[in-house]
Fold these 2 entries.
Entry 1:
Amino acid sequence: MQPFLAHPFDSDRLHEECGVFGVIGVTDAANFVALGLHALQHRGQEAGGIISHDAEQGFNSAHRFGYVRDNFTKQSLMETLPGSLAIGHVRYSTAGTKAATAIRDVQPFFGDFSMGGCAVAHNGNITNAMALRKELIERGSIFQSSSDSECIIHLMARSIQRNIPERMKDALRRVEGAFSVIAMTRTKLIGVRDPLGVRPLVLGKIGDEGYVLASETCALDIIGAEFLREIEPGEMVVISKGEVESSRPFGPSTGRFCIFEHVYFSRPDSIIGGRSVYETRRQIGVELARESPIEADLVCAVPDSGTPAAIGFAHESGIPFGMGIIRNQYMGRTFIEPTEQIRNMGVRLKLNVNRALVKGKRVILVDDSVVRGTTSRKIKDMILDAGAAEVHFRIASPPTAWPCFYGVDTPDRGKLLAAQMSVEEMREWIGVDSLAFVSLDGLYRAVGEARGRNAANPQYCDACFSGDYPVAPFDQLERGFRMKPNSETSGVEITGHAAE
Amino acid sequence: MQPFLAHPFDSDRLHEECGVFGVIGVTDAANFVALGLHALQHRGQEAGGIISHDAEQGFNSAHRFGYVRDNFTKQSLMETLPGSLAIGHVRYSTAGTKAATAIRDVQPFFGDFSMGGCAVAHNGNITNAMALRKELIERGSIFQSSSDSECIIHLMARSIQRNIPERMKDALRRVEGAFSVIAMTRTKLIGVRDPLGVRPLVLGKIGDEGYVLASETCALDIIGAEFLREIEPGEMVVISKGEVESSRPFGPSTGRFCIFEHVYFSRPDSIIGGRSVYETRRQIGVELARESPIEADLVCAVPDSGTPAAIGFAHESGIPFGMGIIRNQYMGRTFIEPTEQIRNMGVRLKLNVNRALVKGKRVILVDDSVVRGTTSRKIKDMILDAGAAEVHFRIASPPTAWPCFYGVDTPDRGKLLAAQMSVEEMREWIGVDSLAFVSLDGLYRAVGEARGRNAANPQYCDACFSGDYPVAPFDQLERGFRMKPNSETSGVEITGHAAE
Amino acid sequence: MQPFLAHPFDSDRLHEECGVFGVIGVTDAANFVALGLHALQHRGQEAGGIISHDAEQGFNSAHRFGYVRDNFTKQSLMETLPGSLAIGHVRYSTAGTKAATAIRDVQPFFGDFSMGGCAVAHNGNITNAMALRKELIERGSIFQSSSDSECIIHLMARSIQRNIPERMKDALRRVEGAFSVIAMTRTKLIGVRDPLGVRPLVLGKIGDEGYVLASETCALDIIGAEFLREIEPGEMVVISKGEVESSRPFGPSTGRFCIFEHVYFSRPDSIIGGRSVYETRRQIGVELARESPIEADLVCAVPDSGTPAAIGFAHESGIPFGMGIIRNQYMGRTFIEPTEQIRNMGVRLKLNVNRALVKGKRVILVDDSVVRGTTSRKIKDMILDAGAAEVHFRIASPPTAWPCFYGVDTPDRGKLLAAQMSVEEMREWIGVDSLAFVSLDGLYRAVGEARGRNAANPQYCDACFSGDYPVAPFDQLERGFRMKPNSETSGVEITGHAAE
Amino acid sequence: MQPFLAHPFDSDRLHEECGVFGVIGVTDAANFVALGLHALQHRGQEAGGIISHDAEQGFNSAHRFGYVRDNFTKQSLMETLPGSLAIGHVRYSTAGTKAATAIRDVQPFFGDFSMGGCAVAHNGNITNAMALRKELIERGSIFQSSSDSECIIHLMARSIQRNIPERMKDALRRVEGAFSVIAMTRTKLIGVRDPLGVRPLVLGKIGDEGYVLASETCALDIIGAEFLREIEPGEMVVISKGEVESSRPFGPSTGRFCIFEHVYFSRPDSIIGGRSVYETRRQIGVELARESPIEADLVCAVPDSGTPAAIGFAHESGIPFGMGIIRNQYMGRTFIEPTEQIRNMGVRLKLNVNRALVKGKRVILVDDSVVRGTTSRKIKDMILDAGAAEVHFRIASPPTAWPCFYGVDTPDRGKLLAAQMSVEEMREWIGVDSLAFVSLDGLYRAVGEARGRNAANPQYCDACFSGDYPVAPFDQLERGFRMKPNSETSGVEITGHAAE
């Protein structure tokens, strides 16, 4: 996912792979889905899809590469998606896979079962997908995509249950990992969150009889829906005829929400776990200023994602906040077939330093995270070229030292700067006057845990910082990934795969 | 022009109609032009054009609708524009004209003269274009576009001078209004600014023998060119073989630069008249806080254009700065054939209020200007819906009460809120707790004129605020526009048309 | 299928639904497939697809709407289809179905089995597809298309055989109807014809080690391949490493080739059953002239499909042959979003009468068939408007009185003119001076059966003329189609479905 | 121009460069123009343009690359061309020019004059265009296209006449060469033919008040217009309010119509000079059979253009006519970015020999003309490969030994086979058993001149065969073209240029 206030060097950030949105009980539901997906565009920019159902015209679907606003706003396309029930999905392009995404990899997926059609969209990552796929192919399933999410619909197709919600339970009990799933039948909208609730999913109300499921509350705001509550970890809701039925297909569980959603993924105007994301980020800046103060003349953000923390840092430290780096607002998706000169321009196409402001000043630069670190070096160069006297980096997250296997696109561990170096080594390699990260406890305080992280039983999934994986990454272990020595997955045991 | 840190309700802003960029003495000049135009994209988003010249392949051109980055980055297109000399233009779509722009209206224009080809691109507005066009048609010129700028090349075609720079002088002496023109022959890059220097034009150096002409310094930064100086009001430069020849075709004159470039049009990281645009805008916020203080809990900007002034206001007033309004970064150009629902969404597609932040607070909203005022009302509604206790508007420019005829797309005077109402009436109509504009003197102080505006001999063109037009708008007067009673144009007399 | 020398009123003809082509053992196999499909374009114009396999890059596919020549000739696309083994398919758009074809309906279909991938392309029609689809869905298969042909690959996926050719035998033994199937694995090219051999399939040789399978011999000619032989009814060939293995998965059977392929579907330069299609059609004209002579001044064809029979008729009758109707060669596919005037022009867009030639003459018009008859009326009108003295229709096939269920798109029986009227009634309805069809025996004589049709054991499938269906149309009977009273299907019993 | 029954190796034919069509006095005139241009598509396939005029909406235009049917049939485009008066143009791509045609080269051209707008479309070639263009540029005209036809509108713009028809007379008196011009003002439709009437132009009537001007009668047929008469050589008609005014701006003259229009350019269903083109071509075949008989088994045409002459030859000789070569009807415009294999296929993509028919036979092949001769060799190879015993070429025109400068795209004289070799040398080079061309007198007889060609005062322009140019090709002579020794242009002297 590209964050809402995105980082300019997007290829040096972590990315979530999708956002989901569904609505029932409204006229022209697909239009609402388009708006909701537009509000969730930061969670995936490569492609989007919508499936709708109309009593007369049945199921209809459209899947397109590119932004929601460039596709799903056109009258001519939206007319092909009639009905009062629809779901949609935006997808991030997993960088580095050998082949380009094909349109058939774009969700929602659809299956025609004997009791009727079903569409499914998924945010997260199935950690035992490889094993499931192999087993399903052995038994005669034909996969149409390279997406792991397709397992869910094939597991449903083979379930002997006679209604679709029960089939979904059957399927999801076989699946391990992190997932927020939305689905629809001819008459029902369904939402499920995995037992740990790693990925977000919220419930909203619109009009008299309408309900909405969405990855974030900002997608409720855009359509004027009322935010009711989050779907709970391990909960399934089935919505039909104005009724919301809740059940708990996986038994009792304690949540471990992804703490990086607070740091970078979610939109600052969303509310997660009862807290404003913007306020949390501003508070991280405050914690940083307390933990790692420094004398300087100016606090700047690496725009746009570092801005709330920079405002917090400036406020706490009393050092003035200024716009030292200006972002070009006309940058969009990747270039197609660019000239070499364009390819080599990278930075300057996106940013320009406000020379007159930084010249001669001691500058504190607040950034959200350090992944490969290559970006930090380039930004430091630009600031120094413009005549800054000193450059101090303050990072609004702890060092990112472990890959995420729960729906976030992370580089191999070997490419994570913090997996290879100490903070002092990183400071030297980046070439700045000082470098500091917020502590893990500081981050927990900023999200409202006054006592910081509960090491015995962490309140969040923070595997990317701690290496403490709440669900064993089955396929990855098969492929040779090594967990932290002596670690155990700290989460609840999921019985699905083992029990099989 | 859409400003670099643009306003979200772009249709309720003033717009400049273009940006120009030219370069000589570099390999693959068109690539540099593409980069320069990308940096000037805020001055015009509808369309762009590039003409290049190569010793072997002669003149080549490409004109395209849409963003520079979507067209002029492709290898396959850029290969068709070889050579070491090129100029380009980005164009704003003049909203409200009955017909859509045709591709033939996109500059640069080209003419084949007996002594060789010449390409011309123009930023500004020719105030006697209608009269000139009529005269040229009478004599057998065939206009290919509806653009007033085409007059220039026809006047050149008919000049009896035997070289192109002299023909350009002939042509521009016939032309009235505000213009920064760049042109190229097979071997020369030419730049001219009108006697008042209303529109900007700067000169830069790149490599050993290369020179650049651009609307703003930010376009020099992107290609790593060195900023040499501004072209002076009334100056013409002819650049060839590493030499810059300067002349003054219009006789001596005193400049009247457009003060609105400081307020809104130019990029904050550009330097105009030796001053940082960002710093000027921050200073306007400081002036505002001094002139119109108010008790409140939070200073917010209408993003993104109001941000520097909001930072200045917060700094001066001591009231915390926060991001109360979040802008959706995935909004792009206008929608093509949108559904009605999308059309009606306007605001929410672009902005969302950060509810958790503004709830219960007394909020100061800093905006750059008020044109029709419709936007201000909508934003006020959103802020109040989110639970703000009070809303105070502070505007970083004086009331916009007069149309601009010098290259800015302004509504008819009847649609300018400030032409119809007093400030108190405006406050009531918008429905806010208080409303204040920076004074004209305050604005002059912010741009560095410590004593404010020199009423007898104003340092800038501020006609949109003062109704004091430095050049009589000939065509407009013909069409029935009425100047301020008892006013005279305060600028130098241009002898061109009258002398004819 | 649109015939090679097509009829101008294509919507009033019968259409076959596809052509298939596969090649193994050549460099850049997909290029050969593109050429072969171009030669088979008359068998389907709506869409085409190619799947190739390369040892390093695995399977790749491309499916496109439109002509082969507009898609599969481009370097940039063909580069994505590397390898020495490839198959392809062209598809006719079944007019009148409610929904437009989706790209996922375009063959070849692909399935990933545990022993590797397999691509399948199918020409014909599966008469028990509805029943099979229902059964497969019950067991958990997810269909991706609305195409009946997809059954084949799902049946293969569920087979317990451990190699793909055996799985294909399993699958095709379950399938009823008319089919010529080609398929490919990573190393093998496979071809199968149904027990009656209703649809054509030929084998060719190219280069030292290369083999080709194609619907018609004209597709061998275009790539310079040598025509070896037809695949026999009920035969399967598996080609690998320069070897062709033949087997007979369905037991012994006698062929019943589609006689309409001779009349209209196949290209005149193809050779079927050892006979030139052109010569057969010319001979039908000869038979017509013998059976239904008439005094006249001129023999004309309804271009282009009626031309060979018209030449034969002219030769036999001694009446001069002339081009009385001229076809506009710039007509292509259907219009997209046409103006009403264009929609109403139909005839004149395609044909013009050669007025100077027909004026005052008694004209014999030779056409290939009469389906709805609407076309015949329009042509008659045009000829009379141009001043012809008399118009005599001679039809190069017997009356088309029954729908085809074996891969040809036929109107409902109620819309077939010959199902509703006697020949004299038809003559009157069309409004011509005389009307005659070739007799069924005459047609059999023209294809080389000197004694005509063997009523007890017909040599061809001629169900569209005789109502004698060699395979019971299972799904159609379920839908309420009524066979000829007291008729039995005259063909071999296929045990597949019944035995289940 | 590609002929209506086109030759398969179009690049080895002569091509005319355009067709024109205009209509006044009908509702939605642009729709009629679209239909007319579709019927004239054989005269130019590269691009087309339409300009219409509506009392309320003024002039509107659309210019597009590609076929008429792919552009000017769409509701959405045609709605932008309202009004009861419209003209259009189809353009052939002049092969071999260095640069591709730009859209601004596509006619009709438009000029805004002081008395109103005027659109002009031109079929033919202005032989003094280079000289005129130079002169016009000297005086300040700016050319927008590389088309010679643009001279006309610039000459009109500079005329001191106060109405448009008089300005057109002024302009055309300055122009030399062959031209049929149509033009329109806000209220008038204008047509002019040069004094020799080299290119065709006909007048038709539609409805009560409507009139049509078109290159050929087939374009009247498609819209149901009545053919009134040909515009005479040297005649101008001005049509307005249901009246046709005729005048003769160039003084008296005798026509020299292009005889190649009969041979190849015009559609066979058109009527020229009172004669059916089809019948003329058939008659050429008869003449050929009389002049150059040969014993053989089969007469075949090189499709489609050779067919009428082949029918005539077969009829006269008594040798059966058959379809020995089958043309692929799915070939369209040039390939874009084709693979090398496709590029090398040329012939086979378009034609296939009907092997079963020609095998063992002595074949007479009737073709329309020999230009470079490369095609003839390839066709001969194909026929022999298919097993023909003998191949005899009969050509339905005299040897093409001279380039055309009157609107036909001809190769340089050095590339015309007949300019380099005797008929016997050509026979040997092509490699056929015999080769014969119709004689010039035979051709004249076929067009109805019973006594053949009048050498002293030829009835037609036959410069391509005879080297006898009726108008001196001014620009070509400047460029170094050498006329036939001792020849004079046999036509009327045009006083325009000389008088200047």
Note: Chain C has two domains: 15-255, 280-328+345-447.
Entry 2:
Amino acid sequence: MTMQDARTREIGWHKGYLEGSRPDLRVPVRRVHLTDGNDVTLYDTSGPYTDPSVETDVRRGLAPLRQNWIVARGDTEEYSGRPVRPEDDGLRHTSPRGGLRNLDAVFPGRPRLPRRGLPGRPVTQLAYARRGEVTPEMEFAALREGLSPETVREEIAAGRAVLPANVNHPEIEPMVIGKRFLVKVNANIGNSAVTSSIEEEVEKMTWATRWGADTVMDLSTGRNIHTTREWVLRNSPVPIGTVPLYQALEKVDGRAEELSWEIYRDTVVEQAEQGVDYMTVHAGVLLRYVPLTARRKTGIVSRGGSIMAAWCLAHHRESFLYENFEELCDILAAYDVTFSLGDGLRPGSIADANDEAQFAELRTLGELNTIAKRHHVQTMIEGPGHVPMHKIKENIDLQQEVCEEAPFYTLGPLTTDIAPAYDHITSGIGAAMIAWWGTAMLCYVTPKEHLGLPDRDDVKTGVITYKIAAHAADLAKGHPGAQAWDDALSDARFEFRWEDQFNLALDPDTARAFHDETLPAEPAKTAHFCSMCGPKFCSMRISQDIRRTHGGDSGAASAGVSEGVDPELDAEIAAGMAAKSAEFAAAGNRVYLPLAE
Amino acid sequence: MTMQDARTREIGWHKGYLEGSRPDLRVPVRRVHLTDGNDVTLYDTSGPYTDPSVETDVRRGLAPLRQNWIVARGDTEEYSGRPVRPEDDGLRHTSPRGGLRNLDAVFPGRPRLPRRGLPGRPVTQLAYARRGEVTPEMEFAALREGLSPETVREEIAAGRAVLPANVNHPEIEPMVIGKRFLVKVNANIGNSAVTSSIEEEVEKMTWATRWGADTVMDLSTGRNIHTTREWVLRNSPVPIGTVPLYQALEKVDGRAEELSWEIYRDTVVEQAEQGVDYMTVHAGVLLRYVPLTARRKTGIVSRGGSIMAAWCLAHHRESFLYENFEELCDILAAYDVTFSLGDGLRPGSIADANDEAQFAELRTLGELNTIAKRHHVQTMIEGPGHVPMHKIKENIDLQQEVCEEAPFYTLGPLTTDIAPAYDHITSGIGAAMIAWWGTAMLCYVTPKEHLGLPDRDDVKTGVITYKIAAHAADLAKGHPGAQAWDDALSDARFEFRWEDQFNLALDPDTARAFHDETLPAEPAKTAHFCSMCGPKFCSMRISQDIRRTHGGDSGAASAGVSEGVDPELDAEIAAGMAAKSAEFAAAGNRVYLPLAE
């Protein structure tokens, strides 16, 4: 997306900031201007890119918003760090582009040394929360949610929420993931040997966050993994997640059996030093679980899961991720990298949902969650997959039970397999339901799922669909303030303030375009009729007449009604109806309205 | 859609027929040809248009499939019928196009006299079912569902299902609507003063049924209502529904207060003689309920509801639909027109969901349902609207309670108001849930909802989205055979039979197009890798290797696993894994697969 696009899309709203308890704590919000003079304030994930007063340059990266907060805590140190090698980018020494110097030169932004916790000091938000400290990150996230900083601290301390924030990713605008907070949405990007370039991935990231992605996972494989990730991290206002196993596999030229704990650990350190905020680790795929998938309809569909399954089969040994999990915890604790314990054995079809392989792994993830917490590492648990509606609740209930209410992070679930090209919808249905029941973050699915790699339009469609699912769940969970957005749009709809409806929409561009398709441009936007009923008749207008007759404002509206009508209102209404009758006659019994009105 | 399109879209499947108990009872099905030589049989709503052996001509209409069945029952008579008047098409006498002769000439198909039940004889499927008769229509619908004809009869007799089949619409392929059967989807078409023509409406109807619409509602307003309906009915293989009030309003030039029982009744007879299979009647909008909407956020959003509200206000009298309901029942019983009791006070926003106005009307619909049944008139009840997820179940539970389990027919519900241009998705989420809980038919919502009139692409998107919701509900309800479709597609996916995946998809064209976008054409479609993981790596293949080692076929697959692994399988697996290790070594520990393989 060019900044040109951004500017034009900003008509009708502006970037605003909520002031925190300190001058360097400013929380971005989207302020939508209504034609009635009011503003509606919405959660904003788009970063500095939508602030005209900020000059962004993808070659320099974003300003390190959190740098002072991290340094001020005095529990971290800069150090020389692990030397970057050509293999990190999947380049052989024979490669003309190989060589350390080239790599360093790839990202032109400010030079930086990696940072880590002082020896033996966990520098995680979990550790701070447990000590009773409300960090600036927690206050920042709380302001975005419209909740108290103490609530955020409590949820993180209890392990019911995570605040992914690697000390080496100071550019992020802190956010919190947990069932008591707004449901979050993750968008996946990442090149593969098939297609896509570094620039495209950075653009996909800014594009996804502009439409509402709360976090982004870089699932790149093949060439330039390290460099792509560096560009994405330095330009990302949201937490970035990865699956280190993918890069580790590249380092052994794709031979799963040649993977080792040493190679994997080295890759984790490499990514932690770059600033990856959370990592998917498939440590629950145990040797003994692999055979449980033998008679599945679609076997193992998680890439990480099948890599680990292959390793276990090749060596006939237990997973090196499982056996070295405690050491892994200590590494993540030193950078505040959050665990996303991967569901390598998730079901890949309706037929395989909730089977023994899936739930056996989930119970193991529960054990690992307990170990990670002991090491003060923030942890979320990944789930579903393909699950029919009647089997969804069992997933969240079991996860909450065996994982001590750790945040659940689910892919969909897809509620049927019969609609390839529409799996954003088959999964959006399941995502809304599982989020209502307690899932904290939803991993989006695009229309290209099962068919190919998503392009720019697919990313947008996937994000919008999942923002719908997440917000529908926020409403159902009764998140404070969630309904204000719906109410504002409903009021605009009832009053035929078309421009307000567009600007309040998740996708103003498309809403505006669709409206223009069937109605004359300007007049129609203010005319008192609904295009669904033709140009003259207007059902809503009748209600407006009724209201005008009976008094009462839309504010207390439905609440008042649903609690029953009091006698006073009855009387008022009786009188109003008599007046109404006269009114009707006086107006020549006209139900229709001239287009001009 | 041209027949050319139809032909090309038929590659990979053909139109088949299930033979009933009599030679003239042939039930259409879609037989998908798999590359492994097997066929998958799917429910088919597309009518004769997809049968290359049938010559269709929209100017002559479809063959009267049910004519002999209706005549053979000997309980109906042909009669001269109500004279067609220019006003029926919204034409004034001054109109140059006015005049009876012109109107008769408008539909060139075979001349016919209307038919009705002999005096005092209800000729409804409900009356037959109560008498213990299994009609050819019931057997036809049962074969489509894969259930026994007796089950269909029982459900209709109990009022838990309806089989909309006007004696004047012999062209339809009978289908049944009820919670024990496959969830059905209705698509709305209809011109308005704003746009669209007769030809367009007929094409929208055939287009909607081609993608899976089980019924179609013609919501035309403005000019040529009568003639448009005639063309749609004569060419429709699915039941057609209408809202007679819309045409009645045109006859009084849009002045609601000039509506009368006489004008309404005349319109109902006119439409019943044409063959309308079910009619939405807003008889539950009572004078005393109107004020309950005064303080709503979005008032009355149902067009029929606001017309009746206006009439009640103008006259300060009770609804003429409510007061003449028993006479209306006798008219519908004489043609077997099914009631769709309209929810004129449905909520138009999240804020208004489940309020007193909505549920007061629902209880009245319950009373009317009891009266209609007494007159042997088949009846379904309309519902939601805009309803947040946590308030959806209350709607279906209350409806089932107060309407004696009569089929519920719901619009969506939309689970949030913030996504205009995506309301097929906001409502698809609610539709899947309410259908799982017992709703029998879903009225689709297109991306243009609230913004404009749907075009051809919107109709397709709306139907596909709702077929997804309906099928997800069929899976969750455990409809016998529903999962076979998913299993067939999952098997094809696991075995990388791309063409089979496309042909089994709800929308083969789009699935095929998306796949082609990111992968080389032919080779990729048979190559053993998944495009999501790049060209070489294949997680599913690993599972195939595991399976090959451990034996077991995909058939009994997951069932066996989810019931737990028996010792025998354990042993088999242990042996298999040893062999697997050797296999790995022998194959040079290759996890990757060459593209060619």
Note: The longest strand of chain A covers residues 26-33.
